[in-house]
TrEMBL record:
PANTHER family: GLUTATHIONE S-TRANSFERASE OMEGA-LIKE 1-RELATED, GLUTATHIONYL-HYDROQUINONE REDUCTASE. SUPFAM superfamilies: GST C-terminal domain-like, Thioredoxin-like. It comes from Asanoa siamensis. Residues 134-287 form the GST C-terminal domain. Residues 314-343 are annotated as: Disordered. This is GST C-terminal domain-containing protein. InterPro entries: Glutathione-S-Trfase_C-like, Glutathione-S-Trfase_C_sf, Glutathione_S-Trfase, Glutathione_S-Trfase_N, GST_Omega-like_C, GST_Omega/GSH, Thioredoxin-like_sf. Pfam families: GST_C_2, GST_N_2.
Length: 343
């Protein structure tokens, strides 16, 4: 997860406002291979944690576009230390394809002495074992734009050309005020910094509620990249951000429009079936010990509400546009039934 931490594992900056380190590896995987990494099915491994909202975007987009056979996926455990994410879920604690215990090994293989965050999602070249990129905004965009030859039949267009300027504009403000805004609340080191972040977050959530009151999706009448990016924050709101990050003006369940919107997406194939609430809670409450020193993971909230009727169909819209829903989740990528209300 792209979080800023010190060598001691501290996330909160006592000086005040949380500032995210956004120095990612800018290499891209493209059709023309201009950065040295051409699109090639079976060559790259997407490393994720289901706990991380940025990684979850890539999991959703990969599934919606049907890229499972073209891009393999390694799922790291829900927690990490100051060194790296680990493959503790895999047999023997090593990723069976890369042979690594830690994602850190792929970063050091390409950049010995790498001194920035070891973050997910990351694309790793299976032929060399080297990380290619962890530049998460481009990973999902490039899945749409560069990997088109390997999309499933009737895959949706998540980044339609005519809507890209509007999608980009929405993504920019949602990132600043919501996706990153919850972290600016949670990792604020002063009351002033927290107050500022809190106000900015809920002002933007109110703006989103107004925008979505009369339209089913954020941009246009189909699911786009913008919906994916907002969903992964909303689905974590009540389990972690409301309490753990003090984003507590209201719960998501108390914001009628956003709650219905989130439930609509959750019950759409490709969204809720990728969500692991157990991993989400364990990550935030166990890793952020300067916020939650005991490491106790709360048992709630009750997840049954995610499956209640949302009534968003009355707003129209076509979830997949001219495409179709993805098929069943691959057997080796199914979220454990005890970690989700979807059974």
């Amino acid at each position: 997860m792209p979080e800023a931490t010190t060598e001691s594992g501290v996330y909160v900056d006592p000086a005040g406002e949380f500032t995210r380190d956004q120095r990612y590896i800018a290499t891209r995987i493209t059709r023309d291979g201009r950065d040295g990494y051409p699109v090639e099915p079976g060559r790259y491994r997407l490393v994720v944690s289901r706990a991380c909202p940025w990684a979850s975007r890539a999991v959703i987009v990969r599934r919606l576009l049907g890229l499972e056979d073209a891009i393999s996926m390694a799922i790291a455990g829900p927690t990490h230390d100051k060194r790296s994410w680990t493959f503790d879920l895999a047999p023997g604690g090593r990723d069976p394809v890369l042979g690594y215990e830690r994602l850190q090994e792929a970063f050091f293989k390409r950049f010995p002495g790498y001194d920035r965050g070891i973050t997910v999602p990351a694309m790793v070249d299976e032929t060399t074992g080297e990380v290619v990129t962890n530049d998460y905004p481009w990973i999902t965009i490039d899945m749409s734009l560069e990997w088109g030859a390997y999309h499933r039949d009737d895959a949706p267009d998540l980044y339609p050309e005519a809507l890209r300027p509007e999608i980009d504009a929405v993504n920019e403000v949602v990132f600043k005020d919501v996706n990153n805004g919850v972290y600016r609340c949670g990792f604020a080191g002063t009351q002033e910094a927290y107050d500022k972040a809190y106000t900015r977050l809920f002002d933007r959530l109110d703006w989103l509620s107004d925008r979505l009151a009369d339209q089913r999706y954020l941009v246009g009448d189909t699911i786009t990249e913008a919906d994916v990016r907002l969903f992964t924050t909303l689905v974590r709101f009540d389990p972690v951000y409301h309490g753990h990050f003090k984003c507590n003006r209201q719960k998501l369940t108390e914001m009628p429009v956003l709650w219905a919107y989130a439930r609509d997406l959750f019950t759409t194939p490709g969204f809720g079936d990728t969500v692991d609430f157990d991993h989400i809670k364990r990550h935030y409450y166990e890793v952020h010990r300067d916020i939650n020193p005991t490491g106790i993971v709360p048992l709630g909230p009750d997840l049954a509400g995610w499956l209640t009727p949302h009534d968003r169909e009355k707003l129209g819209g076509r979830p997949f546009g001219d495409g179709t829903p993805p098929g069943p989740v691959r057997a080796d990528e199914v979220v454990p039934p005890e970690h989700t209300p979807l059974r």
